């Protein structure tokens, strides 16, 4: 097996970072958070020769899960995650679409299995620990590859910011606790991809992120 690599396909009007995590030798991989624009995601898979093994979801907001069922139907793979606390969000994606005025093929998402803290998910030799990190959404999970020193943090943490907490189920104190107690202790050298915008490293966020300085 080769090294862990990642490609980002921007999707939806929210410019969400749909991420393809893959092995750079075998091309086996997973799609993280296919929020929409499924044709664009499929084109990236086809053009790069990826062998997709599963769809991983970080949380139940429309821009992260709105295209999951269509992608599953096309690829014939399982939808894994998030934590079951986001079941109600996933079952109301079509209502979210109406509320945000989004058009397109948005379908309520039914994962093949939910995840809990301490579980692992994997493809090939790449193993990711599951961290339940509520605050932005009740069932938000983070996928952490300890060997690669890499985390996909969804909308928990951003470069210079943190996830919004004014949506249903949001809780700012809980979000900061998730970052402070579960993410930052993993180490300053952990690189991350987030749900929107550029990623970074935990150490830089700990030192300069205005929401975390002093944490």
What are the defining features of this structure?
215 residues; alpha+beta; Metallo-beta-lactamase, Chain A; 25% helix; globular
What is the fold's blueprint, element by element?
Elements: E1 4-11, E2 16-23, E3 28-32, H1 38-48, E4 51-56, H2 62-65, H3 68-75, E5 78-80, H4 87-90, H5 93-100, E6 120-123, E7 126-132, E8 141-145, E9 150-154, E10 157-158, E11 161-162, H6 172-183, E12 191-194, E13 200-201, H7 202-208
Parallel strand pairs: 3-4, 4-5, 9-12
Antiparallel strand pairs: 1-2, 2-3, 6-7, 7-8, 8-9, 10-11, 12-13
Largest sheet, spatial ordering of strands: 6-7-8-9-12-13
Sketch the major β-sheet: 6 strands, mixed
- Please state the average pLDDT score: 96
Q: Which percent range describes the beta-strand content?
A: 25-35%
Q: What is the name of the CATH superfamily?
A: Ribonuclease Z/Hydroxyacylglutathione hydrolase-like
Radius of gyration from CA coordinates: 16 Å
Order of helices and strands: EEEHEHHEHHEEEEEEHEEH
State the separation between the terminal residues, measured CA to CA.
Answer: 38 Å
């Amino acid at each position: 097996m080769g090294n862990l690599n990642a490609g980002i396909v921007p999707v939806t009007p929210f410019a969400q970072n749909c991420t393809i995590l893959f092995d750079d030798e075998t091309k086996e991989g997973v799609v993280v958070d296919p929020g929409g624009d499924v044709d664009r995601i499929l084109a990236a898979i086809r053009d790069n020769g990826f062998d997709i093994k599963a769809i991983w979801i970080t949380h139940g907001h429309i821009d992260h899960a709105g295209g999951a069922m269509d992608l599953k139907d096309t690829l014939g793979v399982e939808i894994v995650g998030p934590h079951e606390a986001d079941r109600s969000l996933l079952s109301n994606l079509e209502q979210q679409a109406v509320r945000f005025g989004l058009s397109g093929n948005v379908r309520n998402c039914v994962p093949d299995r939910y995840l809990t803290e301490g579980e692992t998910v994997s493809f090939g030799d790449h193993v990711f620990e599951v961290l339940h990190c509520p605050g932005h959404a009740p069932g938000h999970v983070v996928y952490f590859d300890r060997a690669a020193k890499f985390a996909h943090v969804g909308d928990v943490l951003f470069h210079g910011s943190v996830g919004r907490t004014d949506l249903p189920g949001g809780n700012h104190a809980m979000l900061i606790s998730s970052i402070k107690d579960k993410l930052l202790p993993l180490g300053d050298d952990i690189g991350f991809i987030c749900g929107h915008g550029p990623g970074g490293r935990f150490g830089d966020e700990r030192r300069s992120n205005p929401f975390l300085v002093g944490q």
